[in-house]
Q: What sequence folds into this?
């Protein structure tokens, strides 16, 4: 049985935005009722959890809406619902991580928000749920060492920045676009492109096919195993999909399922509890985004069932 965290209040009202908030509900609908999946509502993270990762000025801006430029630095219109909804999505990530520590695997129908930095949001990411989760578990002693494997199309700059001061964390970002020339993310300002001891990046080349992706993934996975994490947080992004408007890669549904299968098989073999998140996906036909995410559940099933 896989416990999957979802809450109808995950999505703050942001109007007609390129970020398809609706997909989280659609993925919930697609997995609800499966005999081996149980949907559970998470609790929000606390302000204390946020304040170990983000600056007091930034957390206050998201809570109050002022100063407005900082409150909208992630490029969402601010509303009073933003703060509670982001505490809840970060709470979904934390709940899935805790569940994975008990069950071996779990998922949350949220993004990890990998562009969010200590003192500002970026690229549709408000609070960095990956690092808030890792930090909360490390602080409480529930998990001493936490690894992040980020396979969103975009480079996880916020996670890299926040990992740099957390030597017990390991962040691997396998990204697939020319990050700094990417039009949608031209406003991303924190350039944490220098890999460090505990944050590594691997670029997928334009036109990348399944064999090339798996070869690069097989370079990254031993780095994670060598780190000996107590928990792996996996961002299974839908934006590497070849029809995504930002993706220069040649990866279809089967290729992305092969990616997820490889990651799950690694976690099972290495006996590392794994919690996965959905991350980006901007394909115009939202059913194709949902299909990538449902494919991740299929990959889980074929490894663990
Ligand atoms: Zn992305």
A:
């Amino acid at each position: 049985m896989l416990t999957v965290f979802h809450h109808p209040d995950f999505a703050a009202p942001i109007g007609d935005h390129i970020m398809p908030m609706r997909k989280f509900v659609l993925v919930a609908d697609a997995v609800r009722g499966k005999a081996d999946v149980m949907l559970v509502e998470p609790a929000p993270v606390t302000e204390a959890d946020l304040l170990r990762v983000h600056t007091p000025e930034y957390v206050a801006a998201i809570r109050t809406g002022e100063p407005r430029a900082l409150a909208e630095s992630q490029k969402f219109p601010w509303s009073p619902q933003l703060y509670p909804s982001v505490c809840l999505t970060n709470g979904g990530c934390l709940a899935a991580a805790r569940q994975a520590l008990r069950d071996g695997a779990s998922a949350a129908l949220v993004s990890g928000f990998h562009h969010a930095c200590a003192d500002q949001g970026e690229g549709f990411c408000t609070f960095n749920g990956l690092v808030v989760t890792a930090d909360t578990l490390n602080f409480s002693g529930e998990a001493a060492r936490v690894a992040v494997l980020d396979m969103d199309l975009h480079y996880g700059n916020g996670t890299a920045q926040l990992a740099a001061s957390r030597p017990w964390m390991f962040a691997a970002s396998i990204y697939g676009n020319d990050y700094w020339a990417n039009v949608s993310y031209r406003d991303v300002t924190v350039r944490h492109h220098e890999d460090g001891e505990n944050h590594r990046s691997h670029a997928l080349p334009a036109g990348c096919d399944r064999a090339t992706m798996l070869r690069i993934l097989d370079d990254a996975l031993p780095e994670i195993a060598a780190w000996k994490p107590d928990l792996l947080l996996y961002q299974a992004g839908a934006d590497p999909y070849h029809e995504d408007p930002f993706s220069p890669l040649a990866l279809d549904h089967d290729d992305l399922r092969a990616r997820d299968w490889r990651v799950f098989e690694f976690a099972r073999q290495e006996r590392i509890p794994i919690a996965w998140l959905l991350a980006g996906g901007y394909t115009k036909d939202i059913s194709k985004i949902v299909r990538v995410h449902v494919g991740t559940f299929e990959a889980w099933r074929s490894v663990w069932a």
The chain has a mean pLDDT of 92.
